[in-house]
Amino acid sequence: MRLDIFTLFPEAFEWFSGQRHVQNAIREGHELRLLNYRDTTPLGAGQVDDAPYGGGAGMVMRVDVVDAALQHAYGDQRAGKRIVLLTPSGRLFDEALARELSEEPQLALLCGRYEGVDERVREHLATDAVSVGRYVLSGGELAAMVIADAVIRKLPGALGHAESAVEESFSEALAGGPEYPHYTRPPNYRGWNVPEVLMSGDHEGIRTWRLERSRERSD
Ligand code: ADE
User: Fold this and answer.
1) Ligand 1 proximity of 87 Cβ (cutoff 6 Å)
2) Exposed/middle/buried for 27, CB within 10 Å: 0-12, 13-18, 19+?
3) How far apart (Å, rounded) are the C-alpha atoms in residues 193 and 190?
4) What angle do CA 13, 19, 22 make, to 5 degrees?
5) pLDDT of 33-86, one tens digit each?
6) Which of 37, 52, 143, 182 has the fewest CB atoms below 10 angstroms from its CB?
7) Residue 192 near ligand 1, beta carbon < 6 Å
8) Ligand 1 center–CA 59 separation, angstroms
9) Ligand 1 in contact with 143 (CB < 6 A)?
10) Which of 208, 219, 211 is nearest to 180 (CA)?
11) Is ligand 1 within 6 A of the CB of residue 52?
C-alpha cells in the first residue's frame, strides 16, 4: 500500500512513523508519505486558509490548496484512489472500515485544520469522509494517526507475530466481538486470581472460555 497523509503538521507524525509495525510495513515494501499542503500551495507566502464566506470565527482550509496538493502527488491519476477526508461529521471509523481501507493499494488521508475545510473538498475531491468519533479534535492529525495505525497493523508483515492480528478484537476469529481478557504472572496478586482454566493446559477449554468472554463483552 501507498499511504499518503496530507497535513500542515508533518512533524506530528514523527513518533508514529518510528513505531515498529510501521517500520515493518515499510520494510515489506509499503510506503508512508507525509505531504505538507504548504509545500504545494498555489498562494503566496505559504497561505493555505481564508476567512469563511458568510462570516464567523476562524479560518477555513481552501479547496484550491487541497486540490494543488493532490495534483502534485497524483497528477491526473486520481481515478480509483481512495481519498479520505477526516472530519468529525464523517462515517464512523470501525474495524470493518479499517479492513476495507487496508485492502486499498493507495490511500490518502486529508487532515483538516483551523475551523474546517471548504465543503467542496468533501463534495468534489474526497471519495470518503471519515470520523474517529463524535467529538471535535483540533485537527485531523490525531484522527489520521488512529486510522493509519489500525490500517497498517492489518498489512501482511506489519505485526511480528502473524497470529496477533488474526485473533484480536473484532476479528472474524472472535466472531466480530471484542478481545477476551489477558492475564500473566503472578497467578495470584493481592488475592486476585487468574482464572483456573487458563492455567489448565486444556486448549479446547481455553478456546471456549475466551470466545465466551469475548461474547460477554459485546453485550
Ligand atoms: N477532525 C477533527 N475532529 C475529528 C474527528 N472526530 N474525526 C476525524 N477528523 C476530525
Assistant:
1) yes
2) exposed
3) 8
4) 85
5) 999 999 999 999 999 999 999 999 999 999 999 999 999 999 999 999 999 999
6) 182
7) no
8) 16
9) yes
10) 211
11) no
